[in-house]
Design brief:
The complex is a heterodimer of chains A (about 450) and B (about 80). Chain A contains 16 helices and four strands. A two-stranded antiparallel ribbon of chain A has the order 1-2. In chain A, strands 3-4 form a two-stranded antiparallel sheet. Chain A is globular, with a radius of gyration of 24 Å. Chain B is mainly α and about 80 residues long. Chain B starts with 16 loop residues before the first strand and ends in a 5-residue tail after the last helix. The model of chain B has no long low-confidence stretch (mean pLDDT about 80). The chains are: A mainly alpha (about 450), B mainly alpha (about 80). At the A-B interface, helix 3, strand 1, helix 5 and helix 14 of A face strand 1, helix 1 and helix 2 of B.
């Protein structure tokens, strides 16, 4: 009987996570569509191609390195403990392939599904970078920076703040229920570091240095992409859950969805909170942007990202009010970066994800002050100082600094920015020429058939 | 006899562990994939350079560049 219940639990968990993954993929895929829409006509296909290529790249790099780092760094290492169970994530460990392995409780476990979830998060991080820097970065340079972000920086950040044994959780009471804020804050900081070195597109400012609005080549694509992302973010949150975890209570064991820290999560509350936050972001965004739907949708996303750290515990109306504040903050932040620093962030990664995650973490520290960060009684409680310190570490130490240094090195090697003439003519120039040249070209046996037809009719 | 640890599905799963073929050779696969990944990134740089170099060369001629920009101007879907 017990083994049957265990089998059902395992099956339900796997089915739930697999379905959530399908939804989660809409986040990076939607971002790729958004970025393509926002790119100008002459750059659109190359940019889209790169964002698609980032999936296999991020997945492979995560398998080889990222997953291992995620298991090595929860404890610092050395801050709260040693390397723990990191050996199970060595890329050559037998637990990294399919098999039947018993977990601590004696049942069969399937950790590899968590690895797949982690790969999708890593792809999303890489796409956040690619969207911000598009139209002027070299392809090779982007790939190197994306690998460093998705397979080095992000796994360390996730290990510190979004794992059951994370030292930030244990010592500082850090809490990010679904890992969305950790990812967004870190990727936003990283993109900022790269953008500072990369500089704006030539077209972004006029001769007097005034910012010029570059219209999207396809508003439809941007809107469709953003809507897909609105579905994808809750998908990422659902995929981040452990859907049928055994949660030990005082007198019984409860089988329920839990967050990464092992605390129970009411699914309805989670979805309601994200929906209310997204609604608030869209409503206020409509007014703040003067009815500009693509920008309003961006603010809706920012509201979801910023509410996610505490969306396992907030009341829906708290989420709504928080969504309003976060959307306003991110809207102001986007224009502040643009006017004060001339930052050319095409998809708004720094403001709509980085700032949203950062402020969301800080606000969660205030609203959830005193709540246990995890079921482990030895861990610190959630508090504003721990959340703020965690957000600062993620944004600046694991995000901005590696992004800035990586971009600096690539710039020194001449591998970061496109030549001006290529930026002007467009990344798609070769493809456009080929298409133009081959429009009326005959292929294969067509020439012979045409000759035959001519002969017949003569 | 098989290339992996599975000879008989009816023997039970209690002590099966990994089920993929050639267990014990994982280190070799890791090395090959890691080398491939580095090669792929280098190939990206090379392809990038070759593709863009042609455009850079062509558009050294300002007339050709102006013609192209005129052609692209205002293209929207």
């Amino acid at each position: 009987m017990e083994s049957e219940i265990g089998a059902v639990r395992l099956l339900l968990s796997q089915a739930f996570t697999a379905l959530a993954l399908l939804l989660a993929v809409l986040a990076p895929a939607g971002l790729a569509l958004t970025a393509t829409g926002w790119a100008r006509f002459k750059h659109r296909f190359t940019g889209l191609g790169w964002m698609i290529l980032l999936l296999p790249l991020a997945a492979t790099a995560t398998y080889l390195v990222g997953w291992l780092l995620y298991h090595v760094f929860p404890t610092g290492p050395g801050i709260t403990d040693g390397f723990g169970q990191a050996w199970i994530a060595l890329p050559w460990a037998e637990t990294m392939g399919p098999g039947f392995f018993r977990d601590e409780a004696g049942g069969y476990s399937d950790r590899l599904l968590r690895l797949v979830v982690f790969m999708v998060f890593a792809w999303f991080a890489a796409c956040l970078l690619a969207g911000a820097v598009q139209e002027r970065i070299r392809g090779g340079g982007l790939m190197v920076l994306a690998v460093a972000l998705s397979a080095l920086c992000y796994p360390i950040g996730a290990a510190w703040g979004w794992s059951a044994d994370g030292w930030m959780v244990a010592l500082m009471g850090f809490h990010d229920a679904f890992g969305l804020a950790v990812l967004s804050t870190l990727a936003g900081g990283y993109a900022l570091g790269v953008l500072v070195v990369l500089k704006p597109r030539i077209a972004r400012h006029d001769a007097k240095g005034q910012a010029v609005t570059i219209p999207a080549h396809s508003d439809g694509m941007v809107i469709a992409g953003r809507v897909a992302m609105l579905a994808g973010l809750p998908g990422l949150a659902l995929a981040a859950l452990q859907p049928a975890a055994a949660i030990a209570l005082a007198d019984t064991t409860l089988f329920a969805a839990s967050n990464i820290y092992g605390a129970p999560v009411p699914l309805s509350g989670l979805l309601l909170n994200l929906l209310m936050a997204g609604s608030a972001g869209l409503l206020i965004g409509h007014v703040l942007t003067g009815g500009d739907l693509p920008r309003a949708l961006s603010l809706s996303l920012a509201a979801i990202v910023g509410t996610a750290p505490g969306a396992d515990l907030y009341h829906p109306l708290e989420s709504f009010l928080l969504g309003l504040i976060l959307a306003w903050l991110c809207h102001r932040g986007y224009h502040w970066l643009e006017t004060r620093f001339h930052l050319d962030d095409v998809t708004g990664t720094v403001a709509f994800h980085g700032f949203a995650g950062f402020w969301g973490l800080v606000i969660a520290g205030v609203l959830l002050w005193g709540y246990p960060a995890s079921p482990n009684p030895d861990d610190a409680d959630i508090n504003p100082f721990g959340q703020a310190a965690g957000a600062l570490l993620l944004f600046w130490l694991l995000g901005y600094l590696p992004g800035y240094l990586g971009a600096r090195i690539l710039a020194f090697l001449g591998a970061l920015r496109l030549a001006q003439v290529v930026e002007l003519s467009g990344l798609d120039i070769e493809a456009l020429r080929r298409a133009e040249d081959s429009r009326y070209e005959l292929h294969g046996h067509e020439r012979a058939y045409v000759d035959e037809l001519i002969k017949e009719r003569q | 006899m098989s290339t992996g640890p599975i000879d008989d599905w009816t023997a039970g799963l209690a002590d099966v562990g990994p089920i993929y073929p050639l267990p014990g050779t994982e280190g070799l696969w890791v090395g090959i994939v890691a080398i491939f990944l580095v090669w792929w990134i280098m190939a990206c740089f090379r392809m990038d350079h070759l593709t863009r170099a042609q455009a850079e060369e062509d558009f050294e001629d300002p007339e050709q560049l102006r013609d192209l920009l005129d052609a692209l101007e205002g293209e929207r879907e």
